[in-house]
Amino acid sequence: MNATKDRDCRCLTCEKDFHYLGIARHRAAHRDKKESCVIMYTYGDVVRHDYGDPEYTEKIKPIDW
Ligand SMILES: [Zn+2]
To answer: Which of 22, 21, 23 has the alpha carbon at shortest distance from 47?
Structure first.
């Protein structure tokens, strides 16, 4: 894992890479468009965020430390 990499999160719904500081904003944009999205975070954990229940997330791939 290269800790200096700029874009270390990825939206699997859009197939786009994001800086870890930008992914939350991107996720909010999906929510604003009433879309669910699947996001891979810095350490490789993949989480599905469902529109309609902001608190609900489903971890698809567990973090493997
Ligand atoms: Zn996206």
So the answer is: 23
CA 3 / ligand 1 centre spacing (Å): 23
pLDDT of res. 1: 47
Can you list the alpha helix ranges (DSSP code H) found in 1-65? 23-32
Measured in angstroms, how far is the CA atom of residue 62 from the centroid of ligand 1?
Answer: 20
Condensed to tens digits (0 to 9), the pLDDT of residues 25-54 reads 999 999 899 999 999 998 888 999 887 665
Q: What angle do CA 35, 37, 15 make, to 5 degrees?
A: 115
The domain limits of the chain are: 9-61
CA distance 55 to 6: 27
Residue 61 CA to ligand 1 center (angstroms) comes to 18
